[in-house]
Amino acid sequence: xxxxxxxxxxxxxxxxxxxxxxxxxxxxxxxxxxxxxxxxxxxxxxxxxxxxxxxxxxxxxxxxxxxxxxxxxxxxxxxxxxxxxxxxxxxxxxxxxxxxxxxxxxxxxxxxxxxxxxxxxxxxxxxxxxxxxxxxxxxxxxxxxxxxxxxxxxxxxxxxxxxxxxxxxxxxxxxxxxxxxxxxxxxxxxxxxxxxxxxxxxxxxxxxxxxxxxxxxxxxxxxxxxxxxxxxxxxxxxxxxxxxxxxxxxxxxxxxxxxxxxxxxxxxxxxxxxxxxxxxxxxxxxxxxxxxxxxxxxxxxxxxxxxxxxxxxxxxxxxxxxxxxxxxxxxxxxxxxxxxxxxxxxxxxxxxxxxxxxxxxxxxxxxxxxxxxxxxxxxxxxxxxxxxxxxxxxxxxxxxxxxxxxxxxxxxxxxxxxxxxxxxxxxxxxxxxxxxxxxxxxxxxxxxxxxxxxxxxxxxxxxxxxxxxxxxxxxxxxxxxxxxxxxxxxxxxxxxxxxxxxxxxxxxxxxxxxxxxxxxxxxxxxxxxxxxxxxxxxxxxxxxxxxxxxxxxxxxxxxxxxxxxxxxxxxxxxxxxxxxxxxxxxxxxxxxxxxxxxxxxxxxxxxxxxxxxxxxxxxxxxxxxxxxxxxxxxxxxxxxxxxxxxxxxxx
Length: 651
Hints:
By secondary structure, the chain is an alpha+beta fold. About 20% of the residues lie in helices and about 25% in strands.
């Protein structure tokens, strides 16, 4: 029984990812006399740092006897000061149940979580549109409050709570020692050099990051390890989530790359995906099957030697700014196509197209091609073209973006509307009005009417949308044929000539050929290819997609096998998106039926093959046998179960 190339290679891909070593156990790490890499105090739910703690001298938080990381408070519990979050670090409720605080953003969050965690769960991550934040640490709470270089309002924790799934950190050496801190500065750019010179500010990172301008600090000099520890704490609370840690290591930051690697290994340890340096990119389901949660990426060439870093993570040939004239044509700043023609890797290394923005005042003097902002249309274009990392400033807080007078006359305004419309613009699948609280399967629907005055290339993308439907409704099915090994997005899509209820999807798709399976698009580009097929079907307005929000389903739900005595028979079963988690299969025969079924599967594959065997080395006598294939899917602390009834008729 043949499968998609993508699914068939899942078990092979997993073999390349080694299990990481146990995280280093040292409670404190100090290099030389001054460089504090990490300490066992000051983090959330840890003892507060005291003057005897190495980290005490690198924390710029209030308090004399007890200090904590930024946004945490030292609380006296018995005789011990403990660092607790009293609402300054996490203000958005768990599971983003923010209908009261963010009523409009809530449905967008649910759709975005469904799209990232489940719809795209079986696509290599460097093809998945992943929304995140630029200069995530440079926020009002723990990155600084100076308009010159602040880029966010929410803390890293709240950014994650609201759906950011890639976080960017820029480490810089502290000015009075080598302790890695976080600070937003890019003095190599001509625009920033002009701006710093205009204010008589130093461009050397150590000195710049220690400054205050008009009484407002450019950086709170937060130690690097505390930001990584904050990410770890959030991931521990959300064991099913996968986040990309985007490291921007700039040459002039004077930071030791080996120190950064040690910090990441110490703090995140067994959460890390390890990379064999061959450019193989896992899917979310594969990462969950490895019980990992973090994929670390760096900019440019990284020579730290740590095997958990994808090298180079971000090739400049596939990065861009929205102000570049090539951007609407899905071309990078170096005129490389980021859309369908792009392969998974080049020269053995993975390609991760990236587009972002910078809404800090430091961008005022930048050249036009580096000043592009991500608004609604630019975000839609990023997803349409196939950019992977989409980095927002003032994520879910655009109303707080910087604005005011320019030093040499005129005004600037980097603020935006509230609620933030960009996360919704990044959703390529669901209709904006679709509510996903109910567990129902999805259909791709033609629009009732085309929206006017849209760019031609975005018209169908915006109007052909996913909707929920009752599983008993009769629609044709979207079936995907073999994909290219080099480009897993290039399925051959077909629509079945017959219509039926959702559970018949695999049965109907198999009638088109054994290579076809009931499936779903996993990115905007795949969706566009299916839309092109649907447009040619004049009599079809809706097609079933193999996606069931939050529920694990198997298609077909009943398998009927027929074989001659002593022979064998097989069939394929295709899982829905479900939880985007790890599968476990086991067969239980019923009544007097023997153990007649074998199950061939991979934890990371949504397709399972079932086949009959002559039980116990003897031929099965003619008759009818039956049993139940039990299926369990796990994603973090969530568990779904379903079953498939299997009958065998031996002639």
